Amino acid sequence: MTTRNAFLAALFLAALPGAARAGEIVIPLPAGATPETITAHYDCGAFGPVAARYFNAPPVALASLSFKGEFLVVSNVIAASGARYAGGKYIWWTKGSGADLYDVTLGEGAAPVASCTSSS
């Protein structure tokens, strides 16, 4: 395949709805949903930094978190205040410029494993 043909094939595939490249997940959104991505960095003291990307396209609200060599995708769930995300064994709860990371395997009343402040 020539370089030109490879470029045209890639362009065509990128234009297809729902087409994904290697290492990507594509989620179809409801009609009229407009996606917004927000990147934030958190200073979590002794726990270390947490990098977060928020993907909002109401009614879809997801976040990806990177910390201590882990990568996690979490989904927004009901919260009395702030924004609460759940995924795997973790709860990520943000309010204002702060966020707490909970490990649910430690029990319902356990303190957060990290208390963070937004640094971006």
Automatic annotation (TrEMBL):
One Pfam family from the record: MliC
Domain C-type lysozyme inhibitor: 42-103
InterPro entries: MliC, MliC_sf
KW Signal (keyword) present: yes
Presence of keyword 4Fe-4S: no
Span of the signal peptide: 1-22
Keywords, ordered alphabetically: Lipoprotein, Membrane, Palmitate, Signal
Coiled coil: none
SUPFAM superfamilies assigned: YdhA-like
Protein name: Membrane-bound inhibitor of C-type lysozyme
Protein source organism: Ancylobacter vacuolatus
